[in-house]
Amino acid sequence: MTQPATAPTVAAEAAGDRSAATLVLQDVTLEVGDGEGKVRALDGVDLQVHPGELVAIIGPSGAGKSSLLAVAGALAAPTSGSVRVLDQDLGPLWERGGQSALARFRRERLGYVFQSGNLLPALTAADQLRLAYRIAHKRGRARSFDPQPLLDAVGMGHRAGSRPGQLSGGERQRVSIARALVNEPAVLLVDEPTAALDRARSQDVVALLAEQCHERGVAGVMVTHDHDVLARCDRVLEMVDGRLSPASA
Amino acid sequence: MFLAVRELTHARGRFGLMGVVIALIAVLMVMLSGLSGGLVNDGVSGLKNLPVTAFAFDEGTKTDNAFSRSVVDGEQLAAWRDQPDVEAATPIGVAIVNAVTDDGTQIDLTVFGVEEDSFLAPTPSDGSGLGAPAGIVVSETLRSEGVELGTVVTLDQTETELEVVGFTQGQATFGHVDVAYAPLATWRLITLGDAPAGAAPTEADLAGVDADHASAIALQAVPGSALASGDTDAVAAADAAAGTTTMTLVESFNASPGYQAETLTLAMIQWFLYAIGALVVGAFFTVWTIQRGHELAVLRAMGASARYLVRDGLTQAGILLVTFTAVGVAVGLGLGALMPEGMPFSLEAGPIAVASVVTILLGLAGAAVAVLRVTRIEPVTALGGAR
Ligand SMILES: Nc1ncnc2c1ncn2[C@@H]1O[C@H](COP(=O)(O)OP(=O)(O)OP(=O)(O)O)[C@@H](O)[C@H]1O
Ligand SMILES: [Mg+2]
Prior knowledge:
The complex is a heterodimer of chains A (249) and B (387). Helix content of chain A is 33%, strand content 23%. Chain A contains 8 helices and 10 strands. Chain A is of the alpha/beta class and 249 residues long. In chain A, strand 1 (23-32) and strand 2 (39-49) form a beta hairpin. Chain B folds into 2 domains: 2-44 and 260-383, no CATH class; 51-248, no CATH class. In chain B, a hairpin with a 4-residue loop joins strand 2 and strand 3 (106-114). The longest helix of chain B has 37 residues, at 12-48. The structure holds adenosine-5'-triphosphate (ATP) and magnesium ion. Adenosine-5'-triphosphate sits between chains A (32-33, 37, 39, 41, 59, 61-67) and B (385-387).
């Protein structure tokens, strides 16, 4: 595990070291749609993300950013190429066609932060985390889980009893981040977390994401349209027409 | 369970509305149950309480209204008495008549003509039993018409006068008409049209009747015999020997006027109600599941198994159905207690329990169809962009 304080530099140095990476995509291609409407959403994508590193992905609409998250997040099978998380190659999971094996992999290894509005309206912040814990720990449901430390970590300790409807967009995303960390994931996949937030709020949320990735040694991939927040990330990659390259700017 | 309960309390407005609909269905179900129980009692309570295994009707009698269609004679009776499975056999005469009491009240009566010393003879709870040629023992329910011991009842047309000498305990009705037990000989006199007009029949009148007919033969089987267990082969053999068609006591309910049509109609309404309940609950949970499509996709993406979500959804439906069916049944029982006297309404625990369980199970089936949609939700749709 990387030391929290030195995480960015270590991650940057290790960028070429495939074996140490948590998430590795190799020559990944994804074709979506069929017949005339067939689109190559991902085209020969190579990506390594190291523990404690938050990688930002930018790019125009339709470039394939969400497709990348889907493939990396065991939500879509790549047409070709391979995806590896820690020592698990996802290929065999897809080949065996086991939705339950994939679901199990997702709840054990991956964390997701989606665009705003993906919390359950009926649950308080603490219950959002408790539900995630129940989903992640099929058998150990009786074990007591305390959501408070995680809520404190994202600065939401004082709103543990509030439902999404009573929270601001930024607060909701903080709860989402805490929820995504409940299962102590190896990889955190984040889709436009600041889409509904103002500038200051966006900075806070991305800073929190980077901080949590560093502290917990999680490999983070964040898709964003928001160029103001890129300074908070360890690396910025640009996706154009399904191809990934280091950001020019 | 975790999510189910929290959603129930969070969206209590929506679930409350659904619950009210379920409760109303349950109220209606209790009302229907009470009504069909009441109608059954009104139709056949006079038969229900008889200590009879089966009735033998004349061979080939149509089930509908068999009691008033059938005519059996002494030979058929003797044939049944010879059957080893038969402990006792006695004739019964059935006739529905219009009458007027001595204070001018018009009443309808089903006259059950029975032998005074047979097992069909009524045990009066008030007054005396059968014996006098003109003495009848009537259903207690007739008291509401002002009938008392000593009331003289004059039959229409024949103008025969009969006197109430006793009351049976509880309701005894047949085809929605109160039962009046009369001596079999008196029944024969009346049905043959030989009864004296404007007077009570006397011993002498009865002695003049030369007939051995009745409507049916009431049978008491030897306990444990083939007849007692309703063995169709044994019954068919005995029927062939006696030239009769036999129905068990419960089958004979269908032979009372209108019984089959009434019970079928009510049963049909009840099944429609169940179907409506299942459809409404199914529609509600379909909308509810579709509405939460994105939330459910997020949960699936987080790795929740479809089974977990289906179980949670069914638990939710189960809690809703059980709670509000119970509320509806309670309200229905309360309303049932307020039913006016004389209304054919009778609540029994058994049928209401069965109906409640059916309502809940069919509701769950409806919900299941809706909730199973979560298995078709693609986890990838949790991502905003990718479809
Ligand atoms: N299910 C699908 N069927 C057909 N085409 C699809 C499907 N999903 C994605 N695409 C196409 O694949 C390409 C990449 O889509 P993707 O959603 O990954 O883009 P994106 O970079 O996330 O865009 P945005 O910034 O608008 O979210 C687009 O051209 C899109 O139209
Ligand atoms: Mg997208």
